[in-house]
Design a protein that fits this description.
Elements lengths: L1 E2 L8 E3 L7 E4 L4 E3 L2 E3 L2 E2 L6 E3 L5 E3 L2 E3 L2 E5 L3 E2 L2 E3 L2 E3 L2 E4 L3 E2 L2 E3 L2 E3 L2 E5 L3 E7 L2 E3 L2 E2 L6 E7 L2 E3 L6 E7 L2 E3 L6 E2 L2 E3 L4
Parallel strand pairs: 1-4, 2-5, 3-7, 4-8, 5-9, 6-10, 7-11, 8-12, 9-13, 10-14, 11-15, 12-16, 13-17, 14-18, 15-19, 16-19, 17-20, 18-21, 19-22, 20-23, 22-24, 23-25, 24-26, 24-27
Length: about 180
């Protein structure tokens, strides 16, 4: 367990633009109360890379990270109560192949698919102001439950399933090639 001394504003892990900040594998570990920034990898997980879903990241800010392939901020693992912002990747600018609970995914960029998220499970999340140059400005594939997906560029969702979500004001449309159950679009 890695816990920030006085919360995410005061404990900063900086990759200095040259390395991924954390490689957690698929171990039962928890990262809590950190700001994770300026990480870089040519592969997956610029800020945080996990090889499976077991690692947990909670109450963290994941911001300003880059990945050459997917998950600019975080690849795989589970995020709880995190803010994921200003990250970049080819796919999943903010997060890729993760589960997120009560997170805010804002202002991330993908050069291809999923500005905010890619192949993602979101529960009670806000996905806003993300950009994709091709498909899924907010979310590309995956499932959103009780989420707000708004103000994204490159469609709100592409090839994803939304349950009980609000999908509004997305440039390029709300959802495409997906399913919306009990949603406001």
């Amino acid at each position: 367990r890695i816990v920030g001394a006085d919360g995410q504003g005061s404990t900063i892990v900086d990759g200095q633009g040259s390395v991924s900040c954390f490689n957690l594998g698929n171990t039962a570990c928890v990262i809590e109360g950190l700001t994770i920034t300026n990480g870089y990898t040519g592969g997956n997980g610029g800020g945080i890379y996990c090889s499976g879903m077991v690692p947990v990241v909670t109450n963290c800010t994941i911001s300003g990270n880059r990945a050459g392939v997917s998950g600019g901020g975080m690849c795989k693992g589970t995020a709880n109560n995190c803010t994921v912002s200003g990250n970049m990747a080819r796919d999943g600018g903010g997060m890729s192949s993760c589960t997120a609970n009560n997170c805010t995914v804002i202002g991330n960029t993908a050069s291809r698919y999923g500005g905010g998220t890619y192949a993602f499970i979101a529960n009670n999340c806000t996905v806003i102001g993300n950009t994709s140059s091709q498909y899924g400005g907010g979310m590309y594939e995956g499932t959103a439950n009780n989420c707000t997906i708004s103000g994204n560029s490159g469609r709100g969702m592409y090839g994803a399933t939304a349950n009980n979500c609000t999908i509004t004001e997305n440039l390029g449309g709300g959802t495409y090639r997906g399913t919306a159950n009990n949603c406001i679009v």
